[in-house]
Amino acid sequence: MGNHAGVVRLMVAYALLEIALTASVPANYAKEANAALQFMTGLAESRLIGGAVAVQKAGQLVWSKGFGYASEELDVPLEDDHIYPIGSNTKFYTAVAIYQLHEKGLLNVSDAVNGYIDPADFGLDGPWCPKVHGQEELGCQEPTFKQLLQMSSGILPSDNMACGYPNTSWTPSDWLWPYRMNALNTTYGDASGATGNWLDGTASAADLLRFQELMKAPLLFAPGSQYCYCNTNFNLAGYVVERLTNMTFTNYLNEFILKPANLTNTYYWIGGQGMEPLGIRKHVVSIPGYTTTFKQGASGAPAFTVVNRIPWLEMDLSAFAGAAGAMFSDTFDLLKWYNLFMTQPEVIGLSKESIAALTQPLERIPIPGLSAFFAQGVVVEPLSSKGKKLLYTGGIWGFLAHIEYWVNSSDPSKSDAVIFFSNLNPIIPADSNGACAVQSLQNSSTISLEASACTDSPGGADMTNYVTTHLAQIFNITGNYSSS
Ligand SMILES: *[C@@H]1O[C@H](CO)[C@@H](O)[C@H](O)[C@H]1NC(C)=O
Ligand SMILES: *[C@@H]1O[C@H](CO)[C@@H](O)[C@H](O)[C@H]1NC(C)=O
Ligand SMILES: *[C@@H]1O[C@H](CO)[C@@H](O)[C@H](O)[C@H]1NC(C)=O
Ligand SMILES: *[C@@H]1O[C@H](CO)[C@@H](O)[C@H](O)[C@H]1NC(C)=O
Ligand SMILES: *[C@@H]1O[C@H](CO)[C@@H](O)[C@H](O)[C@H]1NC(C)=O
Ligand SMILES: *[C@@H]1O[C@H](CO)[C@@H](O)[C@H](O)[C@H]1NC(C)=O
Ligand SMILES: *[C@@H]1O[C@H](CO)[C@@H](O)[C@H](O)[C@H]1NC(C)=O
Ligand SMILES: *[C@@H]1O[C@H](CO)[C@@H](O)[C@H](O)[C@H]1NC(C)=O
Ligand SMILES: *[C@@H]1O[C@H](CO)[C@@H](O)[C@H](O)[C@H]1NC(C)=O
Fold first, then answer.
1. Which residues belong to the signal peptide in this entry (predicted)?
2. Does 262 contact ligand 6 (Cβ within 6 A)?
3. Secondary structure of the chain: what % helix, strand, coil (to 5)?
4. Which positions of the chain have pLDDT values less than 70?
């Protein structure tokens, strides 16, 4: 489909939607909603995004909208309540599940994980005894649950990611090379999922970990000493939930989190239902994702190309991403989850102490390149106003799901939030001028290359920051809740 025709169609669609929109926006936010609409429409028209946004001010949903296409092939527009894979946002729910077990006395988050696993589940001959690479003489170094949830356990990443960033410099001479998931190509299939589905929907967290063989690998560093973003931490947490409750992670989430929290549009992987390759089934699952790339064209304008539609929806996410990334949701439910977490934790069986622990930033070990810190399953940015912002970006092939949630410290039920989900996951080359081009829409036709929109984070996270930062500005979300 030519982009040009697409733009024309989009403009017609927006003209119609704008009328409908006015009715649902609180009158006192009409001006902001209009500015946000212009900003997002411009991005969508230039084919820089497709997705859904939602904005909350002082606890009230003040604006939401879908942009671009759910399916280009079928010419279906995206709507604000479409359901997306939310990738790593799953980790927040997993962390909550561990704290629920802590509150029930089934474990203590300060305990070493060793006491809660069956070595046979991972093909180990004896008790799990992880040693730090290069410091084997120290003997077994046992991470705690808290260290898993804080990404400080030292467990090796399973894919070609070095603590959250792709590491292209790894070679077979690096000691960790044999432990990488890619080395298991032939069984697993390539990362696009084209030949995935290796466990046919019946995998448990233990199957995943056994398959990855990471429980046999050395640790990258002593538990608690460094930060390393790595899915394995949460897969192991998910395994313990399954083992202690004798439930599948899916059933556990449904019974103890999704039902009590009334998250009716949130799912753990549901086994391919409704995932026709080009299908759109609102309220079931899901929309096609696209990977995209930008190149700066000769005229200085960013040229945008859809590289491919992601075929992975046919693959089993519970087996691949598991408790680290296999959930689906829409913008409204993710917002509902954060609101409930901050204001009614008793509904999901958590005390105020657990909420405080889960959102306690690990300031001792900063996340490289961010002014925010990992807490437990969620990232926390302390604000100069002494408040804090919770945030997360989930990225899974073809999709991004980003939330920023400013906690109103005088009254959490009056918190602000901006959410942006996208079914375009831009592949943004890391070079400074290469492709991090974002149209500046306030002045309609200007194109600018904004360095601030181009962090060193590949995979599209900079796009989510760009969008949410602008929307926060438009809606005057400052994070300043001081009453003085
Ligand atoms: C934060 O909550 C307080 C107490 O309810 C409220 O007065 C104030 O307006 C809220 N702040 C913002 C920026 O919404
Ligand atoms: C959990 O363990 C910590 C450290 O050993 C201890 O201080 C705390 O009291 C324990 N909590 C519970 C609920 O047992
Ligand atoms: C990538 O791996 C190499 C070799 O192990 C290491 O020296 C380098 O620090 C890693 N880069 C990043 C960004 O982690
Ligand atoms: C994995 O498979 C791809 C092709 O599908 C190949 O290019 C790559 O070298 C393989 N990686 C490893 C570590 O075997
Ligand atoms: C675990 O659940 C399965 C099936 O739900 C049941 O057959 C089994 O007895 C349970 N085991 C324990 C220890 O509760
Ligand atoms: C649960 O949420 C749905 C909307 O997703 C709403 O219609 C329903 O009233 C809620 N039920 C309860 C018990 O809060
Ligand atoms: C927050 O707002 C108050 C007035 O409401 C102001 O006095 C204070 O300087 C602001 N703080 C910051 C960090 O902007
Ligand atoms: C838009 O144009 C005005 C006036 O020329 C300028 O001050 C402003 O910086 C421009 N905004 C952007 C985002 O380019
Ligand atoms: C933005 O919000 C702050 C409080 O956070 C308030 O003092 C200021 O007047 C607001 N600005 C506008 C333009 O509404």
1. 1-22
2. yes
3. 35, 20, 45
4. 1-24, 46-48, 72-74, 158-162, 164-172, 180-204, 211-212, 270-316, 319, 397, 425-462, 483-484
CA of 409 to the centre of ligand 1 (A): 8
Q: Give me the architecture of the 3-84+261-474 domain, per CATH.
A: 3-Layer(aba) Sandwich (3.40)
Task: Tell me the CATH architecture of domain 91-258.
Answer: 3-Layer(aba) Sandwich (3.40)
Structure tokens at 210: 């056994």
The residues lining ligand 8, judged by C-beta closer than 6 Å to any ligand atom, are: 440, 442-443, 446
pLDDT score at 429: 40
Residue 51 tokens read as: 């997705």
Question: Among 98, 101, 105, 100, which Cα is nearest to 349's?
Answer: 100
- Ligand 2 pocket by Cβ (under 6 Å): 108, 110
Ligand nearest to the CA of 144: 2
Helices (H), 328-446: 331-343, 352-358
* Start-end of CATH 3.40.710.10 domains in the chain: 91-258
The pLDDT tens digits for 19-57 are 333 346 788 999 999 999 999 988 777 666 788 999 999
